[in-house]
Amino acid sequence: MKKIIIGLVVLLTFSRSFAQEGEDVGWVARFGAAGGIAPAFVFPNVDPVNMQLRTMGIPELSNSMFVYGGGGYAYIMIVDNLRLGGIGFSGSQSSAGKLSPQYFQSNFEVKQNYSFGGLTVEYTLPFVNKVALSVGAVIGLGTQSFDIYNNYSAFDWSNVWGESVIKSTALPPGTHSEIKNNFISITPTLNLDVPLNRFIAVRVGGGYVLPLHESWSVNNDQNIKSIPSDLKANSFFIQTGIYFGFFAF
Fold first, then answer.
1. Rounded to whole angstroms, how far apart are CA atoms 174 and 160?
2. How many CB atoms within 10 Å of residue 18?
3. 13 vs 3, 7, 16, 28, 93, CA distance in Å?
């Protein structure tokens, strides 16, 4: 009987210690809210564009793009460890060179613009201690576009409007076309927030943009045909940043 009593005391002591340790390591619902800057690297597929640039002798666009962004979130407290928020980022890159057709030389440039943003829904894993490891998704909208410039000569007020070109056989001073893709996307994400203290945290994360619908147009929303099948909005991104708020991890 004495051994049984001793055993029960040890078991109760161990259970109480384990429960206290569980509370210390954060086996409770997370709470808090934060916002901050979150620049990212986006990896769009620009191979079809680079194929055109290669044949023209123009330097190719990079397959990685630095974009500026920011975001924020708040734990809603109705569902444990669930947080809602928003995110957005945008950036651009360009490539330029000289073209030398048979009769004249021109300055050619292509500029890629990328923007994306939306609502974030994330679940913070409760068994990870002292940091916030969250899985979720972004439900949002985005745009990727390519501005194509080919400038032959000097510009003035009249030839910008086409007046001098209409009245003579002169070439227009230049051309500009914009090919644009508006898309709706759901983007799975994984983010790690590491608090430096109760009010500042460093974020590292990433996601993959999966377009649910894409709409291509040119210039002032004119239809464009024969868009390469592999010129899609699908893109992986890596996000970093620093967030300010209140953290209870």
1. 9
2. 10
3. 15, 10, 5, 21, 63
Alpha-carbon span 241 to 163, nearest angstrom: 50
Whether residue 188 contacts residue 206, with contact meaning beta carbons closer than 8 Å, is answered with no
Each residue of 115-127: pLDDT tens digit? 999 999 999 999 8
Strand positions, DSSP E, the chain: 31-37, 40-44, 65-75, 82-99, 106-124, 132-151, 174-195, 200-218, 235-248
Summarised one tens digit per residue, pLDDT across range 143-202 is 999 999 999 878 878 777 766 656 665 667 788 999 999 999 999 999 999 999 989 999
14-25: average pLDDT: 41
From CA 233, how far away is CA 141, in angstroms rounded? 11
Rg (CA), the chain: 27
* Mean pLDDT value across residues 62-71: 95
Domains of the chain: 31-248 (2.40.160.20)
Contact residues for 61 (Cβ-Cβ < 8 A; gap 6+)? 46, 49, 50, 53, 93, 94, 95, 110, 112
Q: Kindly report, residue by residue over 75-119, the tens digit of the pLDDT.
A: 998 999 999 999 999 999 999 999 877 657 889 999 999 999 999
CA 210, CA 231: separation in Å to the nearest integer?
13
Looking at the whole model, is its pTM more than 0.85? no
Per the DSSP assignment, residues forming a β-bridge with 81 are none
- The CA distance from 177 to 110, in Å, is 10
Instruction: Tell me if residue 167 falls in helix, strand or coil.
Output: coil
